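Input record, target 12 of the design panel.
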């Protein structure tokens, strides 16, 4: 079975956008591609949602292509601190929808517009929670990319913002809305492989080196101060952006928080846990790359959950493996999750499908299927309109998986096992590690720093 990487996924998303655009002009063509266009034709004009897309580069451009092609939403704003990316995004939206959005560099202009119903946030990680909290407090529904928070404390602040605002927040872990994945997880949770005691997620792929650099002046088209936002003031480097920010502590969460969190989220889902672990440990470091990236290129993390509600008092484990220097196909999949039950095993490949085995490795069921980003958008919109009662990837699910990312990274940094209080969200008896539950923001403050309470 061929592997599917992030690049392939983006190409598929782009193809979906083209199909949606075609459906707008040609209903007959839509009938040939119902998955891409199923919610796009015959939208009620009075039901149109007004959107702003914040950070329309990279994954944000995939969202923009799909959103601009829909008839039931209107992209009123695109917002980016990079003028070149902003211009491209505005042009893309106009070409796809026939309407030119307002192009702004300050997200507060989007949030201040009472006509905007919801925002899509696809910024670097350090902006995810601050932007989402600001948007919620401004009365907007939020779709935010993963990981939903840069640190554990921001996850709690996001949940509080959702509660006080009464608005919806969907996290961009689109596997939660993908029918193929949902069927596999439903089989696991229904007991088809017995009681699941261990889940494993892995991220194996060949990344490139980010090289080494020295501080320099940012390009003229980039408002670097605005890009930093709430993060500490540090000099610009040529290997910090675009995209490369994810390897720096101040801005990203490493590849475990980039591709890895997708598979961790699926593993948490199928393991059936609804709280944080009480123990976390991670061995990891830079085994391969000799460059500026600060996060491990090799990680092995183990999380243990308490035996609450289990009839035999059994604890559960979740394991995560990462090797971003090896194109190794593990158990048939480059990235994926496996569920180990007392009566069988289910192995799932990210964006590819799954296989269910019974005793003695007997194959009992299997299915293939790619990721469905359109369905994830649709679930978000249906919940806003009251047509569905439950977000597929709400803030609770998002922070469960993000917290594992952060605990693994903290454990790797301090090089010891962590004892975690799931209710207080504090690391116990370890001041050095517990200091990393939150983060240092810009000295002197910044308008985007999340407020407490």
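The sequence produced for target 12 reads:
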């Amino acid at each position: 079975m061929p592997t599917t990487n992030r690049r392939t996924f983006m190409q598929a998303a782009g193809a979906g956008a083209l199909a949606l655009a075609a459906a707008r002009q040609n209903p007959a063509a839509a009938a040939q591609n119902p998955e891409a266009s199923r919610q796009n034709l015959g939208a009620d004009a009075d039901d149109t949602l007004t959107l702003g897309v914040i950070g329309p580069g990279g994954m944000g451009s995939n969202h923009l292509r799909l959103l601009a092609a829909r008839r039931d939403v209107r992209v009123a704003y695109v917002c980016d601190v990079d003028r070149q990316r902003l211009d491209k995004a505005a042009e893309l939206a106009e070409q796809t929808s026939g309407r030119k959005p307002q192009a702004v560099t300050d997200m507060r202009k989007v949030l201040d517009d009472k006509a905007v119903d919801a925002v899509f946030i696809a910024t670097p990680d350090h902006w995810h929670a601050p932007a989402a909290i600001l948007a919620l407090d401004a009365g907007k529904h939020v779709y935010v990319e993963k990981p939903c928070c840069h640190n554990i404390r921001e996850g709690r602040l996001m949940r509080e913002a959702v509660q006080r605002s009464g608005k919806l927040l969907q996290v961009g872990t689109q596997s939660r809305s993908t029918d193929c994945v949902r069927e596999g997880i439903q089989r696991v949770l229904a007991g088809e492989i017995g009681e699941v005691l261990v889940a494993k997620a892995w991220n194996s792929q060949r990344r490139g080196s980010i090289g080494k650099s020295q501080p320099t002046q940012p390009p003229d088209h980039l408002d670097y101060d605005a890009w930093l936002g709430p993060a500490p003031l540090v000099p610009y480097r040529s290997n910090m952006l675009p995209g490369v920010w994810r390897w720096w502590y101040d801005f990203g969460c490493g590849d475990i928080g980039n591709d890895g969190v997708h598979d961790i989220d699926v593993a948490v889902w199928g393991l059936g846990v609804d709280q944080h672990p009480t123990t976390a440990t991670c061995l990891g470091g830079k085994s391969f790359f000799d460059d500026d990236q600060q996060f491990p290129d090799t990680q092995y993390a183990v999380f243990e959950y308490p035996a609450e509600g289990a009839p035999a008092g059994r604890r559960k484990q979740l394991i995560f493996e990462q090797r971003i220097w090896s194109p190794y196909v593990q158990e048939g999949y480059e990235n994926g999750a496996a569920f180990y039950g007392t009566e069988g095993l289910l192995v799932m490949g990210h964006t590819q499908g799954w296989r269910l085995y019974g005793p003695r490795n007997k194959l009992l069921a299997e299915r293939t299927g790619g990721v469905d980003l359109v369905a994830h958008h649709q679930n978000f919109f249906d919940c806003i309109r009251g047509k569905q009662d439950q977000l597929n990837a709400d803030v609770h699910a998002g922070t469960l998986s993000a917290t594992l990312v952060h605990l693994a990274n903290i454990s790797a940094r301090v090089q010891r096992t962590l004892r975690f209080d799931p209710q207080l969200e504090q690391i116990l008896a370890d001041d050095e590690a517990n200091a990393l539950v939150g983060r240092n923001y810009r000295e002197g403050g910044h308008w985007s720093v999340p407020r407490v309470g």
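DSSP finds 14 helices and 16 strands in the chain.
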